[in-house]
Amino acid sequence: MMAMDSIRLNAGALAAALANGELSALEAVGAALDRVAALEPKVNAFTTVLRVQALADAKAVDERRASGAAMPPLAGVPFAVKDLFDLQGVTTLAGSKVLRGQPPAARDAALVRRLKDAGAVCVGALNMDEFAYGFSTENSHYGPTHNPRDLSRSAGGSSGGCGAAVAAGMVPLALGSDTNGSIRVPSSLCGVFGLKPTFGRLSRMGSYPFVAGLDHLGPFARCVEDLALAYDVCQGPDLEDGHCAQRQAEPVLPGLALGLEGLKIARLGGYFDEHAGPLARQASLAAAKALGAGPDLDLPGVAVARAAAFVITASEGGALHLDRLRGAYADYEPLSRDRFLSGAIIPAAWYLKAQRYRHWFRAQMKEAFAKVDLFIAPATPLQAQPLGTETMDINGRSFPARASMGLLTQPISFLGLPVVAVPIPQPGGLPIAVQIIAPPWREDLALRAARVLEQRGLAASPVAELAS
Known about the structure:
Strand order of the largest sheet: 1-3-2-8-10-9-15-16-12-11
Largest sheet: 10 strands, mixed
Shape: globular
CATH class: Alpha Beta
Helix content: 25-40%
Oligomer: single chain
């Protein structure tokens, strides 16, 4: 196998090729780094490329394999992480300017360590909205990330660099974060698979926070098997993370082939149709049909849940940044600094009311899951919009573009439910995704449904050809 051919392999296939000697880790990682170098002027997915370290790590993998040692499942597979994960020896910027003077991280983030323990090789950090506050990755400090499916369009955010890097074939795996939709929105706009696990399922140690009560970490990939593989590697308790549930790993990869027999599935209508454009609705209808879904369900209180999530996001985010804003206001992203300041002065009564509503809304969803095992909903209202878009039209109503790509994801994050974003290719090259929403701790069900859509040819994530 030619090394450059490896960029089109998914992580599982690449790991197999490495294991059987078709290519070396040095060749695979070198090919990924060369593709990053070739495409970065067009895509701008990376903020840091660790070429020297990555090649040294790849060489170490090859030496270990040559010694006859048992090899872990991702030995030699390249990956990259959103620039809010600590990477040892690198300053964690979280898309900001104000953190440039901070010391380099003393050690890798917990999930980075777990991928490395599985043999994967980190090639760098990925662009994002500053401090994860946005859905477009139009970063004033490091430039916008361009969507590999159409370079004139947004990659989504705030994990836009993750979606773009995976879609462009720079890496087969990436780690991102999702507070209000920041894994699912880039997955939808860039046409890749993304997993937002149950809140507290994966350790957040060594990641820069945005909203402690809503932040999730999870993987991106170009196929369901890779998503499950990365998720399994990242699982496990972490006593250092007070928000991480101390649950033992529950591997999902072995159960991907179980199918959906006996499961009840429904599509979410109402709010989710009202705030989805025609293509988004059609994609969710097609997914529902392919999965044998029953009648649609209109979940009560979704619009208020999104408003409450906004209050919690603004309040916690503003409180986190208030002291630094007082001394370095001008160094913050112009698109988010005013929102941080306004969040910091939200009355405590509003915040408490939002939390009480969260409790009520969770009870409504618990009742719904007593009747249905999985829900399907659109992931984004529209396909990727041109960079610089200020407003977008959804069913005849005008919405602010930067915040409204999360209209359909934010109410689900509010509950901390596990969700797989499944890309549905569309005519013309711009994909759009659906969300498969499962009960807490049942990532396995959502991944099994995503796998069925993939097997039936409805879902796919080919490497982008970088149409301009």
